[in-house]
Amino acid sequence: MIWFGTFAVVVVEMAQITPPVGFDLFVLQGMTSHEMGYISRTALPMFLIMVLMVGVLVLVPERATWLPETLRARS
To answer: What digits encode the pLDDT tens for the residues 9-26?
Structure first.
């Protein structure tokens, strides 16, 4: 369940920053008054990092559960 929650949060955030319907892009456009194309290009590195993170979560699922398991073991 912890892995799925982490995976779902990352994938939903990826959807929030991809055009043409990315809600976060509209928020940033309203805050900065830049064009949507500029904001989309500047969000691209973050999107690529999230794609890499999804790949790591799928290939090494223990990464998502390491911290909760470590904290649970201390209790």
So the answer is: 999 999 888 877 788 888
Instruction: Verify cis geometry, omega within 30 degrees of 0, for the bond prior to 45.
Output: no
Tokens (6 digits) for 35: 């064009």
**H helices of 17-61, where?**
23-32, 36-59
Q: What burial class does residue 49 get, using C-beta atoms within 10 Å of its C-beta: 0-12 exposed, 13-18 middle, 19+ buried? A: exposed
Q: Which residue has the tokens 């290939």?
A: 59
pTM of the model: 0.74
Of 7, 8, 42, 6, whose CA–CA distance to 24 is shortest? Answer: 42
